[in-house]
Specification:
five-stranded parallel sheet; 15 strands; 20 helices; six-stranded antiparallel sheet
Length: 530
């Protein structure tokens, strides 16, 4: 196949051509055609016509999981009258098939997450939708003995060492020798030191057939309202199962790393927090910094390949080299992750005082996950977050003995988050002095500050909120029938010092509440990007 001729002919009917190190993408009206380059790079092999056809078919099949309305199928590239065309542009039966292309519906660049971010139009709600989409996707992904092998330390170490081998000379042209060595030492020693943790993830079914390339440029939001927009995720890894079979934390870390690389550490932490909330997988915080370092290194490796492509324009090669350096530096920085002083914040109060609403907003301001007892309780019981577990006030799922187990799990998850160097929020009623003292003792054992935020609202306001909540789909099982009983059993806060106990009037606007709390809890600086 004459590559230059194929590219030139197909370009004649395109509005624009975009190129990566493994494909050409032709934008034609409302369609997109992606043609694999005839390359063999060790980790992928598109060297023959049949291998490229199989890769195209795999791409369509796998991406139907997250963007079924976008991927239209596989079409041949044929030669008619000496010119290359996409098969559907020629008469039936004409021409010789010389290649294959993935046919897609064209999406608008302005709907792409990285373009939104560049225009400062990627909001917290967009990031929440991304995290929720990935969480639902991962829940349905294949997880079995075969996928699990790729989450074992030996398998990951093989990928890590391959990265180092393939970039040994390139990275040392961009970083100092000691910096390059420090990345290798960190990643390899982390794997060796925490081998048991990786195996726990395998046994827990957290290693799945995921996406493998979750970057900002692969997310699209079709619709002006971020809460209602259709989320499309494109371009999963189709050419090597070794890169797609991975811990869900590794899959997610590609996106959090990308947000951090773009200077939005605040949004990266929000992504992790929302995903952990949706999946009750707070153990990912034990691994996420390692995986972000690993993913940053992978992107640095890819950028060095682009920088070394002699067929690419000189300005593109120079840009790729600058990007590679930033990715490698980010891989190095992950070892020194703590950004805010770790703090343990417990948010409590009687039913319908606005605890979870405050936890959500405060979490965004802190870059902290909120661990919610209702979600943890239902996860422990195998129920969905919105399933209603309506029984007596203190029976069934809310039996005191089971409730203590729930609080134990909440405290365990909080310990994991704080030990990763991050603040954490505990979202529960904390109706008794003993529950509050247990949370304070946990903070003391971790050596971090403790704050208890007591949400208060007029009981009639709470009752009105519960009437509205009864008509909605919510995570909380709090309801009007048990409100008075719960209120009667609430133990006033007398055991904490004034510095530890902050009363929050949730009838006030949220902006005022956050300004009040900024004096008590360390938050991201106003306008923080990195």
């Amino acid at each position: 196949m004459r590559v230059g001729t194929l590219k030139r002919d197909l370009a004649q009917g395109a509005d624009e051509i975009r190129e990566t190190h493994i494909s050409w993408v032709f934008l034609c009206g409302d369609s997109v055609y992606k043609v694999k380059k005839p390359v063999s790079l060790g980790f992928l092999d598109f060297s023959t016509l049949e291998k490229r056809r199989q890769a195209c078919e795999a791409e369509v099949e796998l991406n139907a999981r997250l963007a079924p309305e976008v991927y239209r199928g596989v079409v041949p590239v044929i030669v008619v009258d000496g010119e290359h065309r996409f098969g559907e542009q020629a008469s039936v039966g004409e021409g010789q098939i010389v290649d294959w292309a993935v046919h897609m519906r064209r999406l608008r660049d302005e709907d792409r997450a990285d373009c939104r971010l560049e225009k400062d139009a990627l909001e917290v709600t967009h990031v929440d939708r991304m995290a929720e989409t990935i969480a639902r996707f991962h829940a349905d992904c294949r997880a079995d003995e075969e996928t699990g092998r790729y989450g074992e330390p030996a398998s990951i170490a093989g990928n890590v060492r391959e990265n180092f081998d393939q970039t040994h000379d390139a990275i040392r042209r961009l970083l100092r020798e000691e910096e390059a060595d420090a990345i290798e030492t960190y990643q390899l020693q982390f794997l060796e030191k925490h081998a048991g943790l990786f195996m726990e993830r395998v046994r827990a079914g957290r290693v799945r057939d995921g996406h493998g390339d979750l970057r900002l440029e692969h997310f699209y939001f079709e619709g002006d309202d971020p809460a209602q927009a259709a989320v499309r995720v494109l371009d999963c890894i189709e050419f090597n199962e070794r890169f797609r079979y991975a811990d869900v934390a590794s899959d997610l870390s590609f996106l959090s790393m990308d947000l951090a690389w773009h200077g939005r550490v605040d949004l990266a932490e929000r992504l992790l927090a929302t995903y952990a909330r949706e999946t009750s997988d707070f153990d990912l915080y034990r691994l996420v910094d390692f995986y972000e370092s690993y993913r940053g290194y992978v992107r640095g490796k890819v950028s060095t390949m682009l920088a070394g492509d002699e067929d690419a324009p000189s300005d593109a090669r120079e840009r790729a080299e600058r990007e590679a350096r930033r990715y490698f530096l980010l891989a190095l920085a992950m070892e020194r992750r703590p950004l805010l002083e770790p703090t343990l914040v417990a948010i409590g109060g009687v039913i319908a005082t606005g605890k979870s609403t405050l936890a959500d907003h405060l979490g965004a301001a802190l870059g902290a996950p909120a661990i919610n007892t209702d979600r943890i309780r239902k996860h422990m019981l195998g129920a969905r977050p919105t399933d209603r577990l309506y029984e007596g006030s203190w029976s069934g799922a809310y039996d005191p003995e089971f409730t203590e187990r729930v609080y134990d799990e909440v405290r365990r998850c909080a310990r994991v988050v704080v030990e990763s160097g991050r603040p954490v929020i505990l979202d529960a009623s904390f109706r008794s002095a003993a529950m509050r003292e247990d949370a304070k003792a946990l903070a003391a054992s971790l050596g971090v500050p403790f704050r208890f935020l007591e949400c208060r609202a007029d009981p009639d306001v709470c009752r009105a909120r519960l009437k509205v909540r009864d008509q909605q789909t919510t995570v909380s099982d709090g309801r009007l029938e048990i409100f008075d009983d719960f209120l009667a059993k609430w133990e006033p806060v007398t055991e904490l010092s004034p510095d530890e106990h902050v009363v929050v009037d949730t009838e006030r606007p949220m902006r005022e509440l956050l300004e009040q709390l900024r004096r008590h809890v360390p938050m991201w600086p106003e306008g923080l990007t990195e």
